[in-house]
Design goal:
2 copies of one chain form a homodimer.
Chain A lengths: L16 H14 L12 H8 L3 H14 L2 E4 L5 E4 L5 H12 L5 H22 L2 H20 L2 H19 L2 H18 L7 H19 L3 H25 L2
The first copy, chain A, binds a DNA duplex through helix 3.
Pfam families (chains A, B): FCD, GntR
GO molecular function, one term (chains A, B): DNA-binding transcription factor activity
Organism (chains A, B): Desulfocicer vacuolatum DSM 3385
Amino acid sequence: MALKVKADFQKVKKNRIFQDVVDQIQEAILNRTLRPGDMLPPERELRETFNISRGTLRESLRVLEQKGLIEIRLGTGGGAMVKNAGTEQLTETLGLMIRSGTLSVQDIGEFRQGIEGQIARLATRRATPEDIAILEDLVENARVKTSQGAVEAFLDIDQAVHKEMGRIAGNALYQYAAQVVHDNIRKYYDNFLDFTQKRMEENLLDLQRIVKAMQDQQPREAARIAEQHVSRFNERMLKKESLGH
Amino acid sequence: MALKVKADFQKVKKNRIFQDVVDQIQEAILNRTLRPGDMLPPERELRETFNISRGTLRESLRVLEQKGLIEIRLGTGGGAMVKNAGTEQLTETLGLMIRSGTLSVQDIGEFRQGIEGQIARLATRRATPEDIAILEDLVENARVKTSQGAVEAFLDIDQAVHKEMGRIAGNALYQYAAQVVHDNIRKYYDNFLDFTQKRMEENLLDLQRIVKAMQDQQPREAARIAEQHVSRFNERMLKKESLGH
DNA sequence: CTTTTTGAATGGTTAAACCATTATTATGGT
DNA sequence: ACCATAATAATGGTTTAACCATTCAAAAAG
């Protein structure tokens, strides 16, 4: 953990003082004057630097914290630490939009379908022989779990395959999108406590066919199967939901 | 604008009091006890309701504001108004991730390409004859602007076509994704001050071919052309960027 | 009836103090 | 010397009470 950093902050003037302070600290973080892991000075010190009251400074820190730019810890040696910009905020905001009815679960499932298809397509184009080998190992592992009837282990591997394909696709935004969507739809999928042997075999076949298509350099085919794969989840989910009414 | 609403708030206890207050108000908004347009009581009143200090309450309000759940206005009749959950927060967060280097412009361009393709595909499947007619009108309008050499007007219509197709696709998440990505990439596209007559004709042809594919019920073809359409922007953008180095 | 003035309601800010949590340091027993 | 415990200090969390700044509406002036 790095020590405090001097960042040449300036005194404020605008309408909402705390906003001005937010802007200054955010700018320092985004232009790498402050880097992930750096600690901001203690509140009582920052207060003097900006020449504002502690209350106003704390409003600024709340905003930065909510933006995901800093993380605040208690006690001696605590304080505000600069964070890596991650997906938590995207995930949370999307979750808010779902809960507030702005988005439907169906929308998200359909979106996920397209995203996973595109990832499969890009991954097929960009996969190296080593990448394919990794996927083959995972799928072989999944085959073993399937023959053992180990549902939980199979689902873990299924997820690992999706994650690995995201890496191979080589586009961070697709990876984030897949993760955010998955995190927000997981609680609906989790109603699949009746994940039977037959379903497991269906899904295993999907994985095998996707990797085969990647080996054969058939991006369109890989995308098609990946979409179908997600589609199967979506259909079950929607059927369950309609039964719940 | 609705009046104040009674929402049965409870007194607090947790570690971070302001977080507990955030949770309670957020819950009231998400379960529709508080609806968009409703005003929260004034700070001095909320303060008493929760039995906390005004400073702590204001930290809560800052967080809710940053989440996009409320909007705060000054002066008599001002206060905290419940907001519709929109895309501003997604747009801002994505912007932060770009600026902090977590995402590259190339990633976003490629993502946009896939999104617009999927929208074109879905829109083709779901378009009614009336929808097609609207698109035809827009494209005809674009043709006129092209023949007049009216670049700005053409770009406005191009955007309107994309927006309309998003509506036809019927998936709010795809629409949001397209908007968020577009908002974050616009400043890079805006370097196209050299949008020539030839480019305009190229793009007009794309639009005409997309609508044709939709009429012919060819979702794959529509998606392919839409992707190509975006791809053309991306290539120019990347070429510009590399020249800038 | 229109314009101007005034006042009240509301968010924005300050100040100084105290509380709660945590890591470090000092203490004391073995 | 070592380990467990207690004291200490640094830091964020909270409270209180006051005052400032902005806005809208009602009262006053013309």
